[in-house]
Design goal:
Elements: H1 5-8, H2 16-27, E1 33-34, H3 46-56, H4 71-85, E2 95-98, H5 101-112, E3 118-123, H6 127-135, E4 139-144, H7 160-165, E5 166-172, H8 184-197, E6 200-204, E7 230-235, E8 248-252, H9 254-267, H10 273-285, H11 287-310, E9 314-315, E10 323-327, H12 334-345, E11 347-348, E12 350-351, E13 362-366, H13 371-383
Parallel strand pairs: 1-11, 3-4, 3-5, 5-6, 6-7
Antiparallel strand pairs: 2-8, 7-8, 9-10, 10-13, 12-13
Bound molecules: pyridoxal-5'-phosphate (PLP).
Pyridoxal-5'-phosphate binds at residues 38, 100-102, 126, 172, 176, 204, 206, 235, 237, 243, 248.
Length: 384
């Protein structure tokens, strides 16, 4: 059976080799410490699971959901943005629910990008920006993020002719894979650029609640003028450790959201209402659970960052996300480095180049294993 050209044209899956190698090593009985995936090992709180159980007893949740999300969910999302991020959005026209933010990110491109339109995509970056643009027939312009600039974009380096052809720009802070954060000034510059060149800003805020200390990551929607040009994607996957529940929302410019909603109406039927109701309750009274989760990641970050640095890794300083982004000490390419790490220490990590050419020379460690396993990983690295 032949695949459609659009799927065949996607670049080869860079992690396939590593996945195979992981399976082979596992079959031989190796005890692999998997620091390669962004899927939290932590469990959601009992209270949140209880909210879901309660919601399942409500009759109306078993019918088709509302396309843009139920009113309780949108109201709670609007209040959440106000209390946690000082952003004002109207729950009826400036918020829509999503079946996970990946779904919204993929679909917003289909709603606005015509074949040949340019989408400005950070490199390294979350692969869906690239894949969905390519599937939709758009042209990706890779916006380099580099160490010298703290993995924050230099908008002045984007050529004028690219900006004229561009329809959309993706930003993602706190950033996957680099864990970098941005200042308000970066968002202000992005908004100015978007107004000048008529661009849609899609800010992916999947990790906005995952941080430790006083440097709280900011929402682009808290910046005056953002709603003229921007939408922001908030995910609960990492915030409440519920990746499998598939729930998120997009908020911001109402016309952009209308376009996304139209795309979704044609392709999906909305998020499960019981999940929306449970997460609406969590948004109202479970912010304290985020502190529990963040404390665990902070402890893990401290342990593993110190271990890596002792062995010559230069880890990007950050108190956000659950990733450690490090330069590879001996200048090896990132795929080779990860293969060796798997073979010699049974530790799985993600090669930076898997997030785009801009990630070459770096490796991403995901802190989604217990402190005991991280101590064990540190011991194995010490023996390399
Ligand atoms: C940067 C970024 N954005 C979006 C997502 C998608 O999250 P979800 O679809 O679970 O909301 C992820 C998941 O890993 C991510 O890393």
């Amino acid at each position: 059976m032949e695949l459609a050209k659009r799927l065949k044209d996607l670049p080869p899956y860079l992690f396939a080799d590593l996945d195979n190698q992981k399976k082979i090593i596992q079959k031989k009985g190796a005890d692999i410490i998997d620091l390669s995936i962004g899927d939290p090992d932590l469990e959601p709180s009992d209270k949140l699971v209880g909210y879901l159980k309660e919601a399942l007893n409500k009759k109306q949740v078993h019918r088709y959901p509302d396309y843009i999300g139920c009113k309780d969910f949108r109201d709670a999302a609007s209040a959440w943005l106000k209390t946690r991020h000082n952003a004002d959005v109207d729950p009826d026209s400036e918020v829509i629910s999503l079946i996970g933010s990946k779904e919204g990110i993929a679909h917003i491109i289909w709603a606005f990008v015509n074949p040949g339109d340019v989408v400005i995509v950070p490199s390294p970056g979350y692969p869906v920006y690239f894949q969905s643009t390519t599937l939709a027939g758009g042209t990706v312009y890779s916006l380099p993020l580099n160490k010298k600039q703290g993995f924050v974009p230099d908008f002045t380096a984007i050529p004028e002719d690219v900006l004229k052809k561009a329809k959309m720009i993706f930003l993602n802070y706190p950033n996957n894979p680099t864990s970098a954060c941005v200042t308000k000034e970066c968002f202000e510059k992005a908004i100015e650029l978007a107004k000048k060149y008529d661009l849609i800003i899609c800010h992916d805020a999947a990790y906005i609640e995952i941080y430790d200390g006083n440097d709280k990551p900011i929402s682009i929607l808290s910046i005056p003028g953002a709603k003229d040009v921007a939408v922001e994607f908030h995910s609960f996957s990492k915030t409440f450790s519920i990746c499998g529940w598939r729930i998120a929302f997009a908020a911001g410019n109402k016309d952009i959201l209308k376009g996304l909603a139209k795309m979704k109406q044609n392709l999906d039927s909305g998020a499960f209402r019981a999940v929306e109701l449970a997460v609406a309750s969590a948004m109202t009274d479970l912010s304290c659970d985020i502190e529990r989760i963040n404390k665990i990641y902070a402890e893990r970050r401290k342990i593993f960052k110190a271990a890596l640095e002792t062995h010559g890794f230069k880890v990007l300083p950050s108190n956000a996300t659950f990733y450690l982004w490090s330069e590879i000490p001996n200048g090896e390419n990132s795929v080779q480095f990860c293969k060796n790490l798997l073979e010699k220490a049974a530790i799985a990590a993600t090669p930076g180049v898997g997030f785009g050419a801009g990630g070459e020379g770096f490796v991403r460690f995901s802190l989604t294993s217990s402190t005991e396993r991280l101590h064990e990983a540190a011991k194995r690295i010490a023996k390399l």
